[in-house]
Structures are given as C-alpha cells and as structure tokens.
Amino acid sequence: MKKPNIVFVFADQWRYHSFGYTGNTDVQTPNIDAFAAESTNVSNAVSNCPVCSPYRASLMTGQSPLTHGVIVNDVPVRQSSPGFGTLFKQNGYDTAFIGKWHINGQGRMKKIPRDRRFGFDYWKVLECSHSYINSAYYDQDAEELSYWEGYDAYAQTDDAITYMENHRQKNLKTGRDNPFLMVLSWGPPHAPPPYLWNSPYDQYPENVAGTYDSELLAVRENVPQGSILMAKQAMEGYYSHCTALDRSFGKIREYLASSGLKENTLIVFTSDHGDMLGSHGLWKKQVPFEESIRIPLLISAPEESGIPIGEFSEAVIEPQDILPTLLGITGIPVPEIIEGYDYSFYLRGKKGIADDCALLALYQPGGQWYRDSDGGPYGYTGREYRGIRTVSHTYVIDRNGPWLLFDNISDPNQIHNLIHSAPSAHLAASLDSRLRQLLKERKDSFPDGDSLVKSYGYTPEFASLLNSEELEIYLSNWGYAAGEEHHE
User: Fold this and answer.
1) Is residue 296 located within the same domain as residue 422?
2) Which of 55, 70, 272, 434 has the least CB density, counted as fewest CB within 10 Å?
C-alpha cells in the first residue's frame, strides 16, 4: 500500500454522547455524522485516565501513564518513546502539529523546545490556554508569542488546510511523493478559564450564537433534579462549541475531497476525554463514569488499507493503542518500546491482538474533583481509583475496596450501582480478578496519590507550576487575579 497522508484531528473534552451519530438529537454535528458513516466507528474507545495531559502523553508515546510519567496535568512527559511524529518522520513523512500540546509541563505559556516535540517539524503550538478568542501560540522556533485571529479553532483549521495545500503543491513542483502527518489539536469544547467546576462554556464564535436554547435541551437521565438547570445552561455553550468544531471539520473534509487528497488520506477524529455536564451531579472529567471516560474514535482509511467503511468495532481501545494501530494501518513496524496494542488486524476483521477491556485509573484526584470534595447527591467525592471498562460492564475499586459496578448494556446511564447486589457477586469477583491481573501486568500497586506524585518528584498543585507573572498573564484577560481560586 502506498503510504497514506494522515490527518489526525482531536478535540478537548468532547464526550461520546454529544454527536448526532451517537444518538443525540439536540446537538448539530452534520459533518462529523457524515464522516462517521464512511468510517470505522470504534464505539468503545476509552480515555482510561480521563484528564488532558495523561491522555495526550499516551497518544504521543504509545505508553501508559506510569511509564511516560504524566499521571497528572502539567508535568513533563518522559521521552521514553520515539514518539508519534518521530516514528512517522523516520518512515518518510513530513510532520505538523497545530494547537494545544499540554505535555511539556514547564509552564502553560512557555515555549516548547524542538527536542521536546516528538518529531513534529511544522509547529504552531501553545502548551495550554483554553482562551479561544485571539489566543496565543508559538510559531515554529519564535521566541515571542503570536496570536490566532478570532476563534482559534477556526484559524487553526485554516492553517492546517494551508499546510496541506502547500505540501501538495510542493510535491507537484518537485515530483516528490512524500506523505504528511498533520495533527490538529483543538481546545474546545473544554470550558474557558477560570476552570471552576461551574465555569461557563462561553467564548464560542458569533456565527453559532443563538443556535441553541438551553430551555429546549434534553439532559441525560442520570442528571439529578438539582443539577438540571445548570446542566442545560452549560450545554448551550458546550454544544455551540461542538457545532463550531463540526463546521471546521467539514472544511477539512471539503478540502481533502476538492484537492484529490482524500483517496490516499487516513483520517482520524477523536477526543482526549469527556465531560460530565451534570450527570450524577458531577462536572467536567476525572471520574470513571461513561460521560467522562468514553470518547469518539472514527477512523477512515484508503480502500487498500482493508479498514472497512461504515462499520462498528467493539474494540475497547485505550489512548496508548492509537499510535501502534495507526502504524499498523500504514504498514510501519511497531517498536517494542510501545506498550499499546496494534488493533489494525482486529479492525480489518482478522484475528489479532485485541484485549477485551481497558484499565481505568485516576492516580491523584484534583482539578474539579479534589479529594473528599463535594461529590453531588450520591456522594461520589474525589478519590484515587482503578477499574476496568469492558464492552458490557464497568467495575471500579477505590483504596477502600470495591466501589462501582454497572451493566452498561441494560443500564447505559449507570444509575444502578450493583456493587452490593448479591446476584452480581460472581460477576464482581470475575471482574475484580481481571482488574488485579491488569494491575500486575502494568506494575501498578495502586498506591495513594500523594505518595505516587511525590515518588515522581511532582508537585500536584496547579498554581505551583506557573510563576506569578505567568499566572497574571494567563488569568488577567478574564477578570481573575492570580490569588483567586482556579482549578484544572
């Protein structure tokens, strides 16, 4: 097979349940819905540590958090793997990354050195911002910040299209046939600063304003009565971002079709984790519930790759599996240092390595889910946990023992916790045995979070990772002083 171009697009905090193709009749995502119809839909993809940085480090390295070291946000990834860009670059690809990075861990507004970019050459990136209007980034090796004009996801998408067109023109002029790997990392629909548990989902572009009326939006059945109003208000802005991103994805698809690149381009759409949006009275992510851990994963590959069109795959894929799977699809050998599974044979419908579950883990509670903080009406307070998500069940333990057991087929809203149900005792024991085996395989002794963080030499508090000057710059545009409460 001729090496295909790769367009890898992912959003931040866009949950599986907020697309038309997954059954949501309120949100408007026609372009991604159309893409889903011509893709393999990995319907059980899981963000196994549902926080921004751990997911991104697993994506870039093909390794689990305990190996690459990013067990919480804002800490530096270990360069223990060649990395996403490097592996494709070594096999003839030109590489580009545009948008949010969030695995360098040296300050959210700091420049990321070239040797910390995992092989990406074209580079328009900021570590992390979530300020979506005229947001900042570093252009290649510049020392000073540049700024995206207007809504950053729109500007980033236009830049990605410009990169692809320039690459195509260069190939035509030089007679080259080099493929490209272009990664586009959007910040929305993640809520903008100040990152409080009830922060609004504003800063969406004007051309989607008024698309949604919060009073008309439906909430999931597991949103308690006391959270419904706030959930609907959050969803109005959240869905506005989703629709804006869908339009951007539509522009990418239109360009690929009109330029003739589509036939030889592998396209992936996914997200780093979900968003609770009031389910179980909880907000944002970190927690082991479906709204937090379950993510979209759509893969469209050239016909000769053997990846089917318009089919569902029940593979339970984790973030570290994505890189080796893409290597497998493109025919590039997977290095032994990569820990994730290559699911390319499985996606082709053949027998291959395919695990039946994902390991769930929160190594240190924080962000909008601090230890022992308000856990909503059901007492789901912040805690370390480990668990497994199979096609049919979710089983989770905390440091006190078994905590959650849900039948995701008969109870998709995870309303009925079966952990103390006598008829489910055998099932719980079986899942517990599988979980213990997974922990053993991954050398995870399930220590308390504080001890684990200290053993890595990290300071878990967000404010300690930014000096006071950076913090003032970061928050001043939104009316918050550096000393005020802020979490992420």
Assistant:
1) no
2) 434
